[in-house]
Write a structure and sequence with these properties.
The chain is of the alpha+beta class. The protein has five helices and eleven strands; from the N terminus they run E-E-E-H-E-E-H-E-H-E-E-H-E-E-H-E.
């Protein structure tokens, strides 16, 4: 059996609708958002803190990336590992990335204990993810094709034949076209350009 490296990943298409989980008078509001940077995470958290300004905790976990994974789990004042990690566990369970899951807690006056908290945060995160539209995307690699204007037709023919996605282009005497292709097609692309003189392919 030939081992083929995975070149797809799962994420959510759009932010989920708010979900609500109740436990002993405490209310847990759950949200899932598609994100690609820590900057986006910060903005979303700021917005939720304003929206739920009288809440007690804004716990969250996120995972960004497809090959190099970046993740964080935050308990935001709850006992250690009772909130962020149960939320992150659900992100792993649903096998999604480029995602932020936030659970906002309003304290209801009755302590839940660590076990109760783990269960509540896990359930709310699960509900938020079940309420999301999970989609499969391809892992794409980006390249710059660098060439002189005279080779334009040749380059455009390859782009069409290989079904490459044009991201950006600069057309002058020296031309540059940024393209994207699925990870599994990279070797084929490199082979195609290897034998072409005056046309360079640079991975970015």
């Amino acid at each position: 059996m030939e081992f083929t490296e995975k070149d797809t990943y799962k994420t959510i298409a759009v932010a989920s609708e708010e979900v609500l989980f109740k436990e002993k008078n405490s209310k847990f509001f759950g949200y899932a958002f598609p994100v690609t940077s820590e900057e986006e995470v910060k903005k979303i958290l700021e917005h939720l803190r304003k929206e739920h300004f009288s809440a007690r905790h804004w716990c969250y976990a996120y995972q960004i990336g497809t090959e190099k994974i970046q993740y964080r789990a935050n308990d935001d004042g709850e006992p250690n590992n009772s909130a962020g990690m149960p939320i992150y566990g659900q992100i792993q369970s649903f096998e999604v990335t480029n995602i932020l899951v936030v659970v906002v807690r309003y304290f209801g006056g009755i302590k839940l204990g660590v076990g109760g908290l783990i269960s509540a945060y896990k359930n709310t995160a699960q509900m938020a993810l079940e309420n999301s539209e999970i989609v499969e995307r391809t892992i794409d690699k980006h390249f710059i094709i660098s060439f002189e204007y005279a080779n334009m037709n040749k380059v455009m023919r390859i782009i069409k034949e290989k079904n490459l996605l044009i991201i950006a282009q600069k057309m002058e005497m020296d031309c540059e076209i940024e393209i994207a292709t699925r990870k599994k097609n990279v070797q084929n692309l490199l082979d195609t350009f290897e034998n072409l003189y005056e046309i360079k392919l640079i991975e970015i």
